[in-house]
Write a structure and sequence with these properties.
Jelly Rolls; 1 helix; 2 domains; 7-stranded antiparallel sheet; mainly beta
Length: about 230
């Protein structure tokens, strides 16, 4: 008795060893040919089924298509890879005469990934992506002549002006002025970010940070969001 291949109805000696048969939309028995590792037959409404491998749409699942196997593994979400919160002590006579003062963030609350350098007060992006960066700056001893108050976030790609205003007009009754600003910025792997403040048009008497309340000291924080 001759054995027949159910795919092409030919004698067993003539068939392809790795061929798989399936019924098409019209009821005809079709031949897929040889399938690659991990390839499956997938239905297609009102048409013949298709063959394809499984893929991950957002890179949160790692898929390995092996010989006769498909392995799925979760991938750590990228936002957990980098994040920091750092602070600075008070600095007297930091600016006021146009001096550009890079805020010396030398105290870490946390530093996921060890990407912040407390010696240079700089964050370095470990990977290319979008990062949320925020800083709070608290200044004291603003005089009537300190009419320009400018807080900036400086990255490798560009300098962002977080706030620029008339410090003398905006100060409160105790000659203080505080501002918090943040944004989402693009950073390439190895790009850096730091913050600086410039107060102008009078004497260098502006203090950055408080001597009596550490909650009014500057801070800088950030994290990768995607």
């Amino acid at each position: 008795m001759t054995n027949y291949n159910c795919v092409n109805n030919k004698p067993d000696a003539n068939r392809t060893a790795d061929a798989i048969g399936y019924y098409g939309a019209g009821g005809a028995l079709l031949d897929t040919g040889t399938l690659v590792n991990g390839e499956l037959i997938i239905g297609d409404t009102a048409s013949n089924p298709l063959t394809n491998t499984i893929a991950s749409a957002d890179a949160t699942v790692s898929i390995t298509n092996g010989a006769g196997t498909i392995n799925l593994a979760s991938v750590e979400y990228i936002t957990g890879n980098s994040g920091f919160l750092v602070g600075s002590a008070s600095t007297a006579n930091a600016t006021g005469d146009g001096t550009v003062f890079v805020i010396p963030f030398d105290t870490e609350t946390y530093d996921i990934g060890n990407d912040f350098d407390t010696g240079t007060y700089t964050f370095t992006a470990p990977d290319t992506g979008k990062y949320y960066l925020e800083t709070g700056c608290f200044t004291f001893n603003l005089g009537a002549g300190h009419t320009v108050w400018n807080l900036e976030l400086v990255t490798s790609n560009r300098t962002y002006i977080l706030n620029i205003l008339n410090g003398a007009a905006a100060r409160n009754s105790t000659t203080d002025l505080q501002f918090i600003g943040g944004l989402i910025t693009d950073m390439d792997s190895g790009d850096t970010a730091y913050t600086q403040i410039t107060v102008s048009n009078s004497t260098k008497t502006v203090r950055v940070g408080s001597t009596v309340d550490e909650t009014l000291n500057p801070y800088f924080s950030g994290m990768r969001i995607f």
